[in-house]
UniProtKB/TrEMBL annotation:
Pfam families: Methyltransf_16. The gene is METTL23. Gene3D superfamilies: Vaccinia Virus protein VP39 (3.40.50.150). Belongs to the methyltransferase superfamily. METTL23 family. Keywords: Methyltransferase, S-adenosyl-L-methionine, Transferase. It comes from the Eukaryota. This is Probable methyltransferase-like protein 23 isoform X1. InterPro entries: Methyltransf_16, SAM-dependent_MTases_sf.
Amino acid sequence: MYVWPCAVVLAQYLWFHRSSLPGKAVLEIGAGVSLPGILAAKCGAKVTLSDSSLLPHCLDVCQQSCQMNNLPQISVVGLTWGHASPDLLALPPQDIILASDVFFEPEDFEPILMTVYFLMEKNPMLQFWSTYQVRSADWSLEALLYKWDMKCTHIPLETFDADRGEIAESDLPGRHTVEMLTISLRGQSPTGAVYAGTVKTPTRV
Ligand SMILES: C[S@@+](CC[C@H](N)C(=O)[O-])C[C@H]1O[C@@H](n2cnc3c(N)ncnc32)[C@H](O)[C@@H]1O
């Protein structure tokens, strides 16, 4: 299976923060091969993998990744961005949403944030951790983040040892421009306390 550069960088971020993962409820959206979600489960998180309910072969890939990594406890559900499906409604509160390379079509940006916002209403301290490949300088999340009352923080790759062309014996990230961001509700710090600081908001995707 081909592992995309964004997935390698997000997995590196998870590995860097692995001590915070045991017991956390973690949902990966647009999971595909699911490297970040699989790593989170190996680090002790309670993981749910999801991909579009309209793409059953992608859900099969998620299932295969669980089997190949001997993780039968992971649930796999069909979640199409922006759809209020029974599977989305039935999800318990989540602590972290993982999303690797999901910002590749501007028309999907708002449906993705709608799904994230729905889950933030269940847990206002939820954090969205995402990597994206820089594809166009014209694409921006800024207006949508404002509309959905969210804030975004850019995480420099050097802060989690991902600023090198080779990570975990993979040379994939070196050939692409990959960026890392976290999104949370405006007014919430990552720990849930009311946040009064200034957040740099790089919103180009
Ligand atoms: C570029 S791939 C990234 C896959 C994986 N996250 C990775 O980084 O290797 C985009 C993923 O989003 C899923 N996807 C596309 N449109 C979607 C939608 N509307 N709702 C949910 N998932 C979707 C695709 O099936 C695919 O798995």
